Request: fold
Amino acid sequence: MDEQRLKILYKKHCNNALTAEEFEEFHKALEDIDAQLLLSLYADSGQDNAADSFAKEDVFNRISSKIDDIEKQKVFSIQKSNKVLYYKVAAAVAVLFIFSYFILNHIAHDSGIETNKSALESLSKDNTKALASNSSNIQFADGRTLDLDFLPDDSISHRGLSIVRVAENELTIHNEAGSADFDLNSFHMFAAKKGSTLKLTLPDKSTVHLNSGSSINISSSYGIKDRNVLLKGEGFFQVAHNKNTPFIVQVKDAQINVLGTVFNLSAYDQDKEVQATLISGSIAVNTSIDQTVIKPGQKATVGARSAIRVDSNVDLNQILAWREGVFRFHDQSIESILNELSKWYYIEDVQVATNLKDKFTGSIKRTKQLKDVLTAIQEVSDLHFELQEGRVKVMK
Reply:
């Protein structure tokens, strides 16, 4: 692709004006773009001075290392009845799209991220909806947001909270009760962007892995006067034992009480039920009308009317598949599969023809593009998919 065409597509991307076809063209072009050309695109946007303020070389090095780590080819399988498809596709991941999105956010809010202790002064203000829609990973109590891909240093402090990046998509959080701006009653939100996961180590050494599009709220007082958190989406918890201070997760209309244990908790807004699956230890599940204690290997499901049912016949491999970076389905309908896919991919709307009785079993790598996943299902069925601007139509 010639440079002029790339500049046109880039500018349209910054203005959120790309058509589906142009987005695909732009996506493919980014696979071969070099750092110098990327820098020239940014300079042409009129942000040269701002570009100097945020360690461009470090950003490019980080992007380059990500590109080197990408596996060139993946294999996955889907089964329909006894038919198996082995579907090979190139893992073409446009890592530089992340950088491009940052530039858009940077220009839109007229703010820069400085590589010093006052970095937070230039972070953009946002709201919860924008945070959940992939703009940032952290929303502080004062409304300021932060994108971890462009954290100026490996650590940052704000409102009595110290955040340390220990690896990609992995943070350690500490309390700073003695700091001047410490607020015992402030709450901060941490989110895993769509299509990624985030691991957090909390001040008491408990850990939580957040699935795609999930978030957790913790207070500055976590571990000081309580261990209360609020979860939206799905999280895998490994809770440090503390008999004097229970670990409490509030999720929709249910509350999970823990002393020290390992469990998975799923409660996306789009799901009608809350599902708590215990790996080890013990947890109590409470609602306004019901309560129960489950054992390892059991799953407690909170229904729409807050009633709790317990299932001892649990497929942990399927429930924890997201921790392995795969989707795993067992005799599931296309509606159920698309519901799961929408938690990882950008699917805004699904239209399914009536009377579709196909059931699918198999696993799919989460590194695949959505169109490749749908093509794989299409190859082993008589279904046909139309994908356009986040909308999926399923037909026979």
